[in-house]
Amino acid sequence: VIPPEPLPKAARASETITLDQGTVDLLERLSLVDFSNAEAVTRLEEAVKFASVIMNVDTTGVAPMVTPLEDVPLRLRPDIPTECSAEDILKNAKVTEEGYFVAPPGNIPLDVKSDYGLTESCETSAEK
């Protein structure tokens, strides 16, 4: 059930999202996306704001959907396994790193700026 027009409640997301530098650094490291300028951080904050609007939509009584194409038959090729090596598969990639695909191809692992306090807590736990 899709409304014919956007709902004003969903369009009016008045809450302001502000991400601290630690959160931005963590998301940068996990996603391999560079948020080094103010425009990129603003775009990230807008994405988080949009996600919070979606999370607040009342879906009571709405059946979950598996796919928008539930009533359309999907034609799939037969799944016939073939033998190949990791080297053969990685030949298809523009960029690889330590035996893995780098995707999207513009992404490369970023330098670790911080361990986000994980190393210290692991050492403390091991000492106890």
Automatic annotation (TrEMBL):
Pfam families: GatC
Any single Gene Ontology cellular-component annotation: mitochondrion
GO-annotated molecular function: nucleotide binding; transferase activity
GO biological process: glutaminyl-tRNAGln biosynthesis via transamidation; mitochondrial translation; regulation of translational fidelity
Keyword annotations: Nucleotide-binding, Transferase
InterPro entries in UniProt: Asp/Glu-ADT_sf_sub_c, GatC
SUPFAM superfamilies (UniProt xref): Glu-tRNAGln amidotransferase C subunit
PANTHER family found in the cross-reference section: GLUTAMYL-TRNA(GLN) AMIDOTRANSFERASE SUBUNIT C, MITOCHONDRIAL
Protein name according to UniProt: Putative asp-trnaasn/glu-trnagln amidotransferase c subunit translation
Annotated organism of origin: Amblyomma americanum
Organism lineage string: Eukaryota, Metazoa, Ecdysozoa, Arthropoda, Chelicerata
